[in-house]
Amino acid sequence: MTTLALRLLARRPRPLAALAAALEAHRSRKALARLDPHLLRDIGLTHDEARTEAARPLWDPPAHWTL
């Protein structure tokens, strides 16, 4: 997520910011699931780890994304 996007999220009411973060996590996870094995190796993940992360539900954003 870009710095600008984070600044815009900070100005939104909290429920909308939480929804935006959850949607961003969902998009990122789906992109992670589509990565080739050599790209996963570049970021230090196995196929199983990427698949597990991609399967997490929309409402379960990473802890470091909590606003």
From TrEMBL:
InterPro entries: YjiS-like. Pfam families: YjiS-like (PF06568). This is DUF1127 domain-containing protein. Residues 17-51 form the YjiS-like domain. It comes from Tabrizicola soli. It comes from the Bacteria.
